[in-house]
Design goal:
By secondary structure, the chain is of the alpha/beta class. The chain has 13 helices and nine strands. Strands 1, 2, 3, 4, 5, 6, 7, 8 and 9 form a nine-stranded mixed β-sheet that branches. Helix 10 runs parallel beside helix 12. The longest helix is centred in the last third of the chain and has 36 residues.
Length: 355
Amino acid sequence: MADAHIAVLLPTYEPYPPFLTEALDSLLRQTEQRWSCLIHDDASSADVLAIVAPYLQDSRVTFSRNAERRGIGGNWNACLRQIPGPGTRHTRSPQPPIPSHCIQFLFQDDLWYPRYLERSLAVLEENPDVGFVASAHTYRSDEPVEMMEGYRRLEEEKKLSLAPGRHYGREFLYSWLKKGLEQNVIGEPSFVMMRRSLVEKVGMFAENLRQLLDAEYWIRCLLRTDWYYIGEELGAFRVHRESASYRHFCEEKQIDEYMRLFERFQKMFPTGARERMYFTCSLDRRFAEIVGHVVNRLMRGRGIGGGAVPVLRHFRRNPRSAWRGVRRYAVEASRRWWGKVGHWWDIEVVDRIRK
C-alpha cells in the first residue's frame, strides 16, 4: 500500500460552523497527506457551501449536496457511492482520481489529532489481513449533557476490557454478544478506518436504523474480517445538545432499534448455529432490560411510546424468549426491591433500639 490513498467522507446536516471548520482544520493538520475529502450535505437549510468554501481551494476537497433529505444512513451511503473508482472521474475534479484504498468517515462535530490518519494507515499496511482499525478517543462536551455519563462508562469499559492490538473477528463478536451488545467499544465511524475492499464486500449502511447503524455495520464486518485497536488517544468525539446522537437519546427509541438489530441478525444463521445461539442469549438479556424500561416508565406515569411496539412484536414472534426475559426481569427487580426494603427495615430497627 505504498501508494495508499484515503477517501475521507464528511457527511453534514445543519452543521454548527465553528465545529465543522474545526473538524476540517484537524484534517488539514494531519501528518499523513495522501487523502481526498468529500463533504456531502444532506439538504441542510443552512448554506453549508459558504461555510466550507475556503477549504475548497485545496484541490483534494470537494463538495456535493443531496437534492432532498435522506437521513443519517442515507447520507452516509450517498458518500460511499461517490467514492471514485479506477477509470472514473469526480465531477468536481479536472484530474483523474487516485483509487482509494482506505475509507474514513469524519463527522461534522468531531476532530482528529495530527497523527490519526498516519497511525491508522500504518496498522493496515503492517497487517494486510486486517479489514479495519479503530482508535481510542475522548468524548468532549462544552456543556452539561445527560448522555455524557454513558460515554464515560464506555471509556472505562474500553480501558478495562479492550486490549490494544489485533482482535479476531468472530471471537470478538461472540464476546460482544455475551454482553448484549451493550457498549459499542469499536467506536464511532469517525475513528474507524476501513479497507475499501472490505466495504465493497459488506455493502451499505442500514438506512432503517438511526442510532445503531454503526454497531450493525461493525457486526457485518466482524463476520468477515479481523480488526485492530489502537490504544493511543487520537481524536475527540464531541457531544452537544444539537447533535444527532443527543436528539436520538432524547427520543428514547433505542428499544425498537435493539430489537430490530437482534432479530435481523438472528435470522441470518440456521437453527443450532453458534452465532444464532449467541444472538438468542443476547436477545433474552436485552428483553429483560426492555421490560424493566417499560415498567419503570409506566410507574412514573410516562407513556411507553415506541417501546410497546417491539415488546409486543417480540412476544408474538418469540414467546419462549420473551417469557424468559420477563422472568429474568422479575427476579432481578425482586432482588433490588428486597435490598431496598431490607436496608430500610434495618435502619428502622436500629432507630427503635436506640430510642
